[in-house]
Design brief:
5% strand; mainly alpha; five-stranded mixed beta sheet; two-stranded antiparallel sheet
């Protein structure tokens, strides 16, 4: 490895530490997805179960459990914590960034590899997803690994390179176990590449297909995918088939009974958000002609492969009726490589009108967003509408958002000005500088604000409720949608089955309710007890059950004590917010 590449690798290592590991466990779990997935992993670990994902007595049929398995291993090594829950995702994110760098260096240039790795790491959707316990980054890593293994085996005639078809199939299987069918994405993408690159030559395509070892490959796929599916079907029968396959696969594909049905063009504007700011340069990068000079001889084929990887992924996911911004993450390495190669080219020339247009658009958009955010904040601050809004997204979070918009506005305006004065390298460097400052600010002040404003109020009450449960008090969670599954992570390290009939005992029980009549049934058989609720549900509950005392309140969240004997007429829940009143 040359000294230049060693320096680049050191920079990428520092970048990955900042983006994925710095203060990784400093904030509590975020609801909904991270709280749910982590709680499932915690329960699987406590039950010593690697088959059935369960959360509070409810079997979770949505996806295969590879992400939970990774967390079970992390918990076994490090103990149960937020850091341990997020560590496997951070490792997968780092591996994919390193793979993108290596691939860019091998087939494009040293600088293309460095820029592509930085673009991927700083992409907002990748950055945010990689710091939570989710499934998307694991799947993206295995999809990326499968794609790279495939093209390496395709390009090199030597037998040792052809062995890379085996890890390609294995990666597809692991990608499936990370988040189901999209993990098999490399298979149709590779076949589409074959059709285009071999110019529809049926004989050559058949030869290449056979070369990719489809029979042992499918056997490897089945060896990875089949055991868990068989054990789940054996244990849960048609319930597994109907919930897992029909509801969470067929219905999701068709957009039935899911809230994220979107139009065909949905991903086009979202690429500008998820791949910000590089998404504004992507159209110009896609329009760039192939330039084989100073590149390896395989460069034209590799470039075609990366284009198909990126474009076909967007098209395939656009055909699905159900869409989420995170679904496109498997194509982000391709988007980063395409854009980085274009940027590497224009850094050495005064040409590159697209960069000038893109940088000016980004600067103008940053100014407009800051102006709108500033006006909106001051327009509602202190109003009744603002008070209601600050219940869900507290005022400090709005102020943090304004600070972020100001950082973007100043930084991207400076970048645009430098470009207009012909200082392109400084302009590009300033863009990466802005994103570095954004990351540092987000993972210091931003995480502190999010923790204090969003996570801590509810999770501190959950810990308080957990202490009461250890004393033998039953607990009811009376929160409607959106539910907060992270609550159970902060209760005593036990397994709770909220769907089972409540049985009073020293171990404590948990009932999860969203309807008032469910709470009334709970209170009829469980007193004294505690209720974790919020200001939206407490008025109706206190009207129906007047013998309640507010033990503690943090923001909109409340821990309420239900007495065994109704309090005297002189006491009232309305003035009993002091925790000392509950004895």
């Amino acid at each position: 490895m040359t000294s230049n590449r060693k320096l680049h690798l050191a920079l990428i290592a520092a970048l990955c530490f900042l983006c994925f590991f710095f203060r990784l466990g400093s904030a509590g779990l975020f609801d909904f997805n991270e709280g749910l997935y982590t709680e499932i992993a915690r329960e699987m670990y406590l039950r010593h179960d690697v088959v059935t994902p369960v959360s509070n007595g409810t079997i979770w049929y949505d996806k295969p459990p590879l992400a939970m398995w990774c967390d079970e291993l992390s918990f076994a090594i490090l103990g149960i914590s937020e850091f341990a829950a997020r560590l496997p995702v951070a490792i997968s994110a780092t591996l994919l960034v390193l793979l993108t760098w290596w691939f860019g260096v091998k087939y494009f240039s040293d600088r293309t590899g460095l820029i592509a790795a930085a673009m991927l790491a700083f992409s907002p959707i990748y950055l945010g997803t990689a710091r939570q316990m989710t499934m998307d980054i694991h799947q993206s890593w295995f999809v990326g690994l499968a794609m790279v293994c495939y093209i390496l085996a395709y390009l090199h005639p030597e037998k040792r390179w052809k062995q890379l078809y085996y890890p390609m199939w294995i990666s597809c299987g692991l990608g499936f176990m990370a988040k189901s069918v999209p993990g098999l994405l490399p298979i149709p993408l590779a076949f589409l590449f074959l059709l285009i690159n071999e110019r529809w030559n049926i004989r050559e395509i058949a030869k290449r297909v056979w070369e990719s070892k489809p029979i042992p490959g499918v056997i490897l796929l089945l060896m990875i995918i089949a055991p868990w599916h068989y054990m789940m079907f054996r244990e849960h029968g048609m319930q597994f088939y109907e919930q897992y396959y029909i509801h969470h696969h067929v219905d999701l594909l068709l957009g039935k009974d899911f809230s994220h049905v979107q139009p065909f063009w949905y991903y086009i504007p979202l690429l500008l958000v998820g791949f910000f700011p590089w998404g504004f340069f992507l159209p110009f990068a896609l329009a760039k002609k192939s330039d084989p000079e100073n590149h390896p001889r395989e460069y034209p084929i590799v470039r075609r492969f990366v284009f198909i990887w990126g474009i076909a992924t967007v098209v395939l996911f656009s055909l699905m009726k159900s869409k989420l911004i995170s679904y496109l993450l498997p194509m982000y390495p391709a988007a980063a490589l395409i854009t980085a190669e274009w940027m590497d080219t224009i850094l050495e020339t005064s040409k590159g009108k697209g960069y000038r247009i893109g940088s000016v658009i980004i600067a103008a958009l940053s100014i407009a967003l800051f102006a709108f955010g500033y006006h909106f904040f001051h327009a509602i601050d202190g109003t009744a509408k603002g008070a209601r809004m600050y219940q869900d997204a507290p005022r400090p979070l709005f102020l943090f958002g304004l600070d972020v918009l100001m950082i973007f506005m100043v930084g991207f305006v400076v970048s645009a000005v430098l470009e207009l004065f012909g200082k392109r390298k400084l302009s590009v460097a300033s863009m990466f500088g802005v994103l570095t400052i954004f990351a540092l600010f987000s993972f210091t002040d931003g995480l502190n604000v999010a923790q204090a404003s969003y996570n801590e109020p509810l999770q501190s009450l959950a810990k308080m409720a957990g202490a009461k449960m250890l004393q033998g008090y039953p607990l009811a969670v009376y929160i409607a949608r959106p539910v907060r599954p992270s609550i159970y992570f902060y209760l005593p390290k036990r397994i709770y089955e909220t769907n089972k009939p409540p049985v009073y005992g020293k171990q404590g029980i948990v009932t999860e309710a969203s309807e008032l009549h469910t709470m009334q049934r709970f209170l009829a058989t469980n007193r004294p007890s505690y209720i974790l609720t919020d200001t939206r549900h407490f008025p109706a509950l206190s009207k129906a059950e007047p013998d309640l005392t507010i033990t503690a309140q943090h923001g909109r969240w409340m821990l309420v004590h239900a007495h065994r004997i109704p309090p005297s007429p002189n006491s009232s829940h309305k003035n009993s917010g002091n925790p000392e009143m509950m004895k």
